[in-house]
Amino acid sequence: MSKESMRQRLLELASSSDRQKFAQIQELYPEIEAALEAGASRSQITAALRAEGLDISDQLFTNYVNKIRHRIEADDLTRRKAGLPPLRRRQAGEPDPVFEGAVFEDDDETPSPAQPKTGT
Fold first, then answer.
1. Nearest Cα to Cα of residue 94 among 28, 40, 41, 48
2. Tens digits of per-residue pLDDT, 43-86?
3. Measured between alpha carbons, how far is 44 from 41 in angstroms, rounded to an integer?
4. Which of 94, 31, 24, 82 has its CA nearest to residue 56?
5. pTM, whole model, 2 decimals?
6. Helices 29-37 + 17-27 axis angle, to 10
7. How many domains does the chain have?
8. Three-state SS for 99?
9. Structural domain of residue 7, as residue ranges?
């Protein structure tokens, strides 16, 4: 197997629909957790996600949520063992810091992270 074919195969994996679904669930995790804590069932949440266009089964949703929880617990345990406090995680309703300051098509006022604000 050549390096280029391995690279292509990895790119295909990165763009698979299951990976994209996981990334979307991971991004929405604070809101999902808030809904679960408020008493919403997983079936209600997946129905809401499907209504918004995310084609996901109840079982896949449950697997993703459990995977995210496990990663958070493992990260926190590793940090505690190293004598560090757990990371502060984004709460439901807070803006995602990854997109903070990014320029979107309809947002000409905010500079992109690559272009610092100049002038005044």
1. 28
2. 999 999 999 989 999 999 999 999 999 998 888 888 889 898 87
3. 5
4. 24
5. 0.61
6. 60
7. 1
8. coil
9. 1-104+111-120
